[in-house]
UniProtKB/TrEMBL annotation:
GO terms for molecular function: NAD+ binding; UDP-glucuronate decarboxylase activity. The keyword Iron does not apply. Gene3D superfamilies: NAD(P)-binding Rossmann-like Domain. It is an enzyme of class 4 (lyase). Residues 1-11 have a biased composition (Polar residues). InterPro entries: NAD(P)-bd_dom (IPR016040), NAD(P)-bd_dom_sf (IPR036291), UXS-like (IPR044516). CDD domains: UGD_SDR_e (cd05230). This is UDP-glucuronate decarboxylase.
Amino acid sequence: MATNSSNGTTTKPPPIPSPLRNSKFFQSNMRILVTGGAGFIGSHLVDRLMQNEKNEVIVADNYFTGSKDNLKKWIGHPRFELIRHDVTEPLFLEVDQIYHLACPASPIFYKYNPVKTIKTNVIGTLNMLGLAKRVGARILLTSTSEVYGDPLVHPQTESYWGNVNPIGVRSCYDEGKRVAETLMFDYHRQHGIEIHIARIFNTYGPRMNIDDGRVVSNFIAQALRGEALTVQKPGTQTRSFCYVSDMVDGLMRLMEGDQTGPINIGNPGEFTMVELAETVKELIKPDVEIKMVENTPDDPRQRKPDISKAKQVLGWEPKVKLREGLPLMEEDFRLRLGLLKK
Ligand SMILES: NC(=O)c1ccc[n+]([C@@H]2O[C@H](COP(=O)([O-])OP(=O)(O)OC[C@H]3O[C@@H](n4cnc5c(N)ncnc54)[C@H](O)[C@@H]3O)[C@@H](O)[C@H]2O)c1
Ligand SMILES: O=c1ccn([C@@H]2O[C@H](COP(=O)(O)OP(=O)(O)O[C@H]3OC[C@@H](O)[C@H](O)[C@H]3O)[C@@H](O)[C@H]2O)c(=O)[nH]1
């Protein structure tokens, strides 16, 4: 069956699934690979996938930012496998679906080793597309709102080509993800691979690394530790925050449908960093100080997804509001920091 690309062209039918599927010994389970599945979003995705008894889940992760701890409830389960693997090396598996999430998401981590970040996005995605082609699997890429760069169009629609610095300190990630999208579409057009591209906007929730440097995790950890909330200048820059359970729901709907995307998955609720700090202050520690600190180069000044396409073709929209999601993350951080509520 040819797939409908977002630009209306139809492509060759996908390669036939692995001959294994026709063998009489074949388990009829769906074999799902989640690269980066030991990470924040990936481990929540694994939790949801494992709820379906017809799913066998394999996680491939190099633990650069993820942790086995995020998957401890599944280790040893007969339908679950965890392998230490770096996606910049080829991977030979028999699978039916690939959720390709492997890439450090926190700017502090993806800037730590920029060459490795772009290798992960380019060579890692090439390896996963090669795997999809070999076994006839469908593949979903978790791309990012960063492909829009410092957007001149607001809110951002999927048809916006972006405003990205090709040689900046964030380019390893922003351009790396753009090349990953390009590779996805080239394999789709040239080899008929069934692709799905999600452009994920800022996502938060339990299991974020406490010190991974992203704004929501920073503010909550700072408030719980009684440290000043560090608003990076100018403080008027905006982001929109999607709770992780909404994000996982969107990714699974995209994988199960026939849309190539790209499709924005995010919460259109837009806040300045000062507003976010004030909300965390009010909800967690009303006497905490808020201080302005220096920012880093090329920080986008505004970001808000237009999610009309996700609503229309996926029947998806976020349900959890920021003021509902933050307390759930606070509870998780208190537990992990040993600061249970008195
Ligand atoms: N969380 C967000 O706000 C957000 C926003 C946009 C896009 N995304 C994308 O979603 C995906 C997951 O993000 P996250 O927030 O869960 O980040 P995360 O850092 O928690 O998870 C990434 C996972 O990938 C693994 N990984 C990194 N490089 C790897 C490599 N070379 N080989 C194998 N595994 C590797 C890490 O160890 C980690 O487990 C990423 O692709 C990220 O770019 C996230
Ligand atoms: O302590 C902090 C940290 C960050 N910030 C600000 O908060 C905003 C968001 O910064 P974050 O580091 O949380 O995240 P970013 O928006 O830069 O990237 C995020 O969204 C796009 C995804 O692809 C990335 O994976 C995700 O990390 C920035 O304007 C930053 O300057 C603060 O004000 N204080």
